[in-house]
Structures are given as structure tokens and as C-alpha cells.
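Subject: for your reference before the review

Hello V.,

The reviewers asked for a structural picture of the protein, and I figured it would be easier to keep everything in one thread rather than splitting it across files. Below is the amino acid sequence we used in the manuscript, unchanged from the supplementary table.
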Amino acid sequence: MQLSKDISLKAVLSAATCSLLGTPALAEQDNSWKFDTALMYYGETDRVTALEAIIAGTKEFNDEHFLNLKFTIDSLTGASANGAVPQPYPQTFSRPSGEDNYVVDPGETPLDDTFKDTRVQFNAQWTQPLSADYVGSTGMHFSKEYDYLALGVNGNISRYFNKKNTTISLGLAYSHDTIEPEGGINNPLTPMLIPTDEEEIDKDTLGSDDSKDTIDILLGLTQVINRRMIMQFNYSLAIIDGYMTDPFKVISEVDAITGVSQEQLYEARPDERSKQSVYWQTKYHFTNTVLDFSYRYMWDDWEIDSHTFDIRYYMLLGKGYIEPHVRYYMQQAAVFYRPFLLESEPLPEFASADYRIGEMDAFTVGFKYGLPLASGNELSFRLEYYQQSPTNAGYEEPGILTEMDLYESVEAVIAQVSYSF
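And here is what came back from the structure prediction:
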């Protein structure tokens, strides 16, 4: 689970927007290091809790030659939904290792309450002019979790036109991820075996680890409309090949009449995915306020479509400023998403009950308060409420499942303290 944005192609392209707005990362003739630090808390009700610390540094070497470094560490604990449907009786599930089990109470969404991980991440980005009208950037990414390693590189080139009022950018990135989950790579759509106190199970696995490769392409256009307005347009394409199944998720196979669970099968997802998206952002500077609106549409060959609307409104407040924030997200389910499988039907090639690729709506509402300090430093606070509401994608629920909450909402509070110096 990743709660922060990496230094990525999108971040590189957004730097061009800041430049055109006249807000460079560093003040002119000041080549000292500038730092942004943040401590963030993310807490879901009765589920996952995360604590994340970030420190990012920027330094200018020579004229407009910038080095950006970012270090992130986060810790996640709590309970994570395993994908099984609730039942009106206690259910027993195997831990990922296959050496222990846990019991879920009647009527409760099955959650594995031993979810725990720590992630360390490092990013580096170098940006410099290539000529009077070209700017280039290159960077690397490293991220390590208990069972996951991600390595990546990226590059970007931007071209200025029309007295630097227009910028066209092209970015490329490649990443290689390796996962070595506890208990190994489960054989897809095979039953979860339950260990007992007297006997451990012999899990059906395909090996101890697997990997995936991702290629990202991003085309960007930034345009100054007038002295108060700027717009940005992006098109992105991601091609992913390799292991994308979640080794910790299952899907319930239930009786077609009674709805009673017969087996818990490990999920199966395709090993290829192509994602595309278009993005539009507009910033308008009023006399004492700034309106920031963006829209993103994403679609892929898993038949997931999503729409994201995001609005921020910057206003002066006393010696500081306040920035209310509203975000709305809606998503269509993947073609292989199923809340459950029917025992009477043949097994499909792919199936997942993970609500994160199901049909859903989500919204975020909150605000940021910033207080400028001496010497250009700034202290800011962010507080937001998040709610994710999965919905039925048109599946008829048999028997006792009509009395269960198969699409439980997820609520979370996000709090962040940031200091720039």
C-alpha cells in the first residue's frame, strides 16, 4: 500500500508547470539546499493504519541545474480484507505462511488482522537545460518492503515554445518489481488449506517469488493562457507484464442455492495489462485566491474505467493561508472481478474478489492550513476525511448472502504536518 507520490514522470512534467507559473523550486541566486519534510497519519476504521515520514531536498548546482532527493519510510499495521464473503457463522482461514489460522466472527467481513509491513523508499532526480529551449531530466527509484523490491529509472525531455508560454514534454520510465510473499506464490484458483494445531499443511505453490516489468510513456502539454491562467494536458500509457495477482487474496466459492461457502480459492489475475489515461489541470489566479481544478480519465484492457475530479481553492487567512480540498473518484469493475464464485459453474480463467478492482465510488474532503515563517520557511497542516464505497456490479446474491454486507464501506482519516526550510 503506497500512500505517497513517488518522484515520477508526472512529477517531472509538473515541474514545467511551476516554472511557467513563476514559482521555481529555489529562489534566484540561492544555491543552498532546500528541504520539505512531512509526517503523515492514515487510519482506516477497524482496518489499516499507516504512519509515513518524508524528507525531500533540492539543490541548484550552477544555473538551473537541479538535484532532487527524496527519502520515505512508512509503517503499516492493522487488518486487511482477504476477499472472502461474510457468513452467518464463524469462518476459519489460513495465515499467508500456511502455519497458523485465524477465525472471523459471524457476519463480519473477513479480515487478516496480522497485516504488517515497513517500506523504505529513495528517489533521485537530476534536471538541467540542454539548450536555450530544451530541458532534460533523469532519475532513479528504489523501494523495499518486507516481501517486495521495486527498482526503476526514468527520463524526460521538455521543449519550450512561444517565449516559454508553451511546453511540450516526453517522459519514459522503466521499473522492475520482485515479490517474495510469505508462504510463496499460490497456485491460482486452488483451495486454501487450513492448518490445525496437530498438523501443518503442505501448500500448493508455484515457487517462492515472481516479478513484473512496467514501461510508462507520458506526453505532456503545458500552456500559459494569460497572466492569470495556466493549463496542463497529459496522456499516459503503461504496459505491465508479469505477476499481478495478490498472493494474500482469496475468492469464496459458494453454493448457488444457499450461498454457503464451500471453498476459499486463491485469486488469479492476468499477467498482462495496458493502462491509458488523459489528464487536464487548470489553475486560475484571482486577486487573492487560486483555483486548482483537475480531471483524469483512465481505462485499461482489464475493462476498468475511472474518473477523478479534484478541486483545491487557495485563500489567504490571517498571516497564513487555507486550502480546502474536495476529490471525487468513480470506478467500473474489472472484467474478471467477482464478489464470489458459484460452485455449480466451471471455474473461470481469472477471478478476483478484491474490492479495489471492483465497482466503487470514493470521495475525499478536507483542508490544508499553511503558515509562512521567517526566512521563507513554512509550516503547514492537512486534515482530510476519506470514504470508499464499493457497489454491486450487477451480481445476484444467493441464499444467506442477501443478508450479508458484501460491499462494506471503508472510512479513513488523513492527517499531515509539513515543514519546509
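For the response letter, the relevant points are probably these. The radius of gyration is 24 Å. The longest strand covers residues 111-129.

Happy to draft the paragraph if you're swamped.

O.
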